[in-house]
Amino acid sequence: MILDRINLSRRLIAALSDAIWLAAETGMHDRTPSFSELRERAAKELGEVVRNAYNNGGITEAQAKAAMRPIYSTANEVHRGGA
Q: For position 83, what pLDDT does the model report?
């Protein structure tokens, strides 16, 4: 269950990264700050979830490292299968 939450969080962050890029590319610069703020909050929440899960024995060190690797885009997360 926790790995599902981690994977969904990673995909949300990836989707927000894509939204930031698309907003910039299409000249919708007024949307970039709100997408960036949402992405930052989601990333902080992911970090907290991963730390708590690891500290409580819910995930292994390898799973924690995989969960905290850089997130680039939705395509990257879908093809790699998340955490």
A: 53
CB-based contacts of 16: which residues, under 8 Å, 6+ apart? 35, 38, 39, 42
Low-confidence ranges of the chain (pLDDT < 70): 78-83
Buried b (16+ CB within 10 A) or exposed e, 1-33: ebeeebeebbebbbbbbbbbeebeeeeeeeeee
- The pLDDT assigned to 14 comes to 95
Domain boundaries, the chain: 2-77
